[in-house]
Amino acid sequence: MGVVRIAVIQFPGTNCEYETQRALISAEASADIVSWQLSSEELVRYDGVVIAGGFSFQDRVRAGAIAAQLPIMQGVREMAAAGKPVLGICNGCQVLAEAGLIPMGEAGNIEVGMAHNTREGQPIGFICDWVYVRVQPSNNLFLKGLEDHVLPIPINHGEGRFVLTDRAIAALPTLGSLVYCDSAGEVTPHFPINPNGAYANLAGLGNLDGNVLAMMPHPERANFLKQIPTFIDSVWADHKQQFPNALIETPGPWAVLFQNMVTYCHRQGDH
Fold first, then answer.
1. What is the structure's pLDDT at 244?
2. Could you tell me where the beta strands, DSSP code E, fall in the chain?
3. Helix 17-26 and helix 255-269: axis angle, to 10°?
4. pLDDT on residue 27
5. Which of 8, 139, 184, 195 has the fewest other C-beta atoms within 10 Å?
6. How do residues 162-200 score in pLDDT, each as one tens digit?
7. Average pLDDT over the chain, rounded to whole?
8. Is the dihedral of CA 68, 110, 127, 181 positive or negative?
């Protein structure tokens, strides 16, 4: 297999496509920003797809609800069914949830909702902050090598609270997931550790087959060491301070996620 080709879908209101593209390029992929008007036939020619963060269609109706109904999503479904990697970040997470791609992958059957943020049951509005997540062991291709790691990552959303149906809750132990925690990896359900009131502290959730991941935090904003703030309690912040400015382009805590996506595509192409 030659160069891995990844599509980054740009909807009206998307605002993280260029950061996502740079993260993929740093993982040695060829990353194209493609329009939401691209046909499904053209989309499925790519090796993988990312739905980037932003506010597609101004979050009207519900965040991600309109984008999830567009024809291009048929191509995303076909890619997921074919075992290709599908990543949704923030608004992309909301789109994948609205499309029924997590966790069961059944079109028209929504098992996960992304609800308004709450604090102890009370609405709190938009959140923009750095948090910590712990990667749960799973078969998810994006999370390989990150299991049980505690990683810093930024969040930036108003509708990021995971709510699940009973069937999705029953499947949860078998799914790839990220959970909000403190800097030591302890998971407690209360604010600020759980910043938005998500069920089981969920920050991200995969599908049953392990080739789809929907996550509310922004890995593309923690892909390079230079993006990590020095005020947070993390070895990554300490690591940044030890590097001279000339070397600050070194990979950050979430570079592995994008590298995993590219590595998986290469392996699929070799079979």
1. 67
2. 5-10, 30-35, 48-51, 86-89, 112-115, 118-119, 122-123, 127-135, 150-157, 161-164, 177-181, 202-206, 212-215
3. 60
4. 97
5. 184
6. 999 999 999 999 999 999 999 999 999 999 999 999 999
7. 94
8. negative
Q: Decide: helix, strand or coil at residue 134.
A: strand
Coil, helix or strand for 124?
coil
Residue showing tokens 């499925």: 44
Residue type at 96 in one-letter notation: L
Contacts 24+ apart (CB under 8 A), 162-165: 162/112, 162/113, 162/114, 162/115, 162/198, 162/199, 162/200, 162/202, 162/203, 162/205, 162/216, 163/112, 163/113, 163/114, 163/115, 163/198, 163/199, 164/111, 164/112, 164/113, 164/199, 164/202, 165/111, 165/112
Per-residue model confidence as pLDDT tens digits over 169-179: 999 999 999 99
Dihedral, 75, 77, 79, 85 alpha carbons, nearest 10: 130
Q: Quote the domain boundaries for residue 265.
A: 5-269
Query: Based on the structure, what is the number of domains in the chain?
Result: 1
List beta partners, residue 224. Answer: 251
Residues identified as active-site: 90, 218, 220
CATH code of 75's domain = 3.40.50.880
Tokens 């904003």 sit on residue? 221
Q: How would residue 1 be classed by pLDDT, with cut points 50, 70 and 90? A: low
Q: Global pTM?
A: 0.96
CA–CA separation, 98 and 95 (whole Å): 5
Residue-wise pLDDT tens digits, 104-128: 887 778 999 999 999 988 999 999 9
